[in-house]
Design brief:
- By secondary structure, this protein is of the alpha+beta class.
- The protein has 3 domains: 185 residues, no CATH class; 92 residues, Immunoglobulin-like (Sandwich), CATH 2.60.40; 73 residues.
- The chain contains 8 helices and 14 strands.
- Strands 2, 4, 5, 7, 8 and 9 form a 6-stranded mixed beta sheet that branches.
- Helix 2 packs across helix 7, helix 3 packs across helix 4 and helix 5 packs across helix 6.
- The protein is elongated, with a radius of gyration of 38 Å.
- The N and C termini lie far apart (132 Å).
């Protein structure tokens, strides 16, 4: 009984292995007459071809030195992503032939927009696409310090993707100095090597470049918070942002504006991961918006969410002290009248009206931030006597 079970398990494993190899052609030699066994890429082309990752231009021609277009690159990336995640490839050609792969790549965020699909892909452009297929890991194979690839500064638009492939052992550069040559077009032989290393971790290349550890991704850890103003018309308010990762020092650029007004900026550079700014905010110009753009030493940039300062809601406007009557003691006399208010929101517009016995009215208007408003007027006794 035990022997029978053992044989059954062996047969099951053999069957599973046979099914795994279905559709994969293994040969002692490649069918391509233009791929020499002495070429550096022979093993990569052989592996990529035998596992169905890449085909020849014809049954006997691989064309290792030909360039790849962006359409072809996106097709490979889409198929590899689907194979890794779904265990099979179900994508088929559309009209134009690459549209199905483009739509899949957009949906899975392998690309962010359209490229010139029939253009030849640059090495940097190809790496940007394929870096998205690889999952992020905290402990990559290689120690590649920021800025250590000679021709790829951290300010390069594709630096993050290129450094990722170096650190994961997918690429090692085009020469002994590990230059990337990012602007050159990528060859089919190089693509075969990249595909093989991405699908088979045992084929990845281990090396180090520079002495520092890879920089963690720069992120916003705590966003600036909204503030409600408690004073009027102005108040000093402090806004803060906290980051994680990145490489010190950090440049903090605070941007702020009152609604539709122009944006103003204040910049600070520090090694601290928390940064604050205090500004005198007015409640006379509407809602105040503020946000922070942070750039680290390696060139990574992140932008915070917009925080806002909300003006204090005005209390109900009321009169707390009315103008007082005056008693004339001379034929012509100057009187001062005052009114005191509470609540509301400065500035205050006012209008004084003086009524005479003959029906005429004198008006004085103005605007002030003061809570007590006064005016003076000369009154004639004769005018009062004449009209009662």
């Amino acid at each position: 009984m035990k022997t029978s079970r053992k044989i059954s398990r062996v047969l099951t494993l053999m069957l599973a292995f046979a099914l795994l190899l279905q559709g994969i052609v293994f040969a002692d030699d490649l069918p391509f007459i233009d791929v020499s066994p002495d070429a550096w890429y022979y093993g990569d082309v052989k592996t990529a071809y035998e596992t169905g990752l890449i085909n020849g231009r014809s049954a006997t021609v691989f064309a290792p030195d030909e360039n790849m277009t962006y359409a072809e690159a996106v097709k490979l990336a889409a198929c590899m992503h689907q194979l890794k995640n779904d265990g099979k490839v179900t994508l088929t050609t559309g009209e134009p032939w690459y549209i199905t792969y483009v739509n899949y790549a957009k949906q899975k965020k392998l690309i962010s927009g359209d490229l010139v699909w029939n253009d030849k892909a640059t090495r940097a452009g190809y790496m940007q696409i394929f870096a998205q297929v690889l999952p992020d890991i905290s402990d990559p194979l290689n120690n590649i310090a920021d800025g250590s690839i000679p021709d790829v500064p951290m300010s390069h638009k594709n630096a993050a993707a290129i450094y990722k492939l170096y650190r994961y052992g997918i690429v090692q550069g085009v020469d002994a100095l590990h230059n990337c040559n990012p602007g050159s077009n990528i060859k089919r032989s190089e693509v075969a090597a990249i595909l093989t290393r991405m699908m088979n971790e045992s084929k990845r290349i281990s090396f180090s470049l520079g002495g520092e550890s890879p920089t963690e991704k720069l992120k916003i850890a705590e966003q600036p918070k909204n503030k409600n103003m408690t004073k009027s018309p102005t108040e000093d308010l402090t806004f803060s942002v906290k980051i994680s990762g990145g490489k010190a020092p950090y440049a903090y650029k605070w941007c702020y504006q009152y609604e539709s007004e122009k944006i103003e900026e204040k910049s600070q550079k520090t090694s601290d991961k928390t940064n604050s700014i205090t500004l005198n905010v007015s409640d006379k110009k509407g809602v105040f918006f503020i946000w922070c753009v942070i750039t680290d030493e390696s060139g990574q940039t992140v932008t915070s969410e917009k925080a806002k300062a909300i003006p204090k809601a005005a209390d109900k406007l009321t009169i707390t002290q009315q103008p007082k009557d005056g008693q004339m003691t001379a034929a012509t006399q100057e009187f001062t009248f005052s009114v005191t208010i509470a609540g509301g929101k400065a500035p205050y517009s006012y209008g004084w009206e003086f009524f005479y016995g003959d029906g005429s009215v004198a008006t004085t208007t103005g605007e002030t931030d003061k809570k007590t408003i006064s005016t003076s007027y000369v009154v004639s006794q004769s005018a009062i006597d004449q009209y009662g």
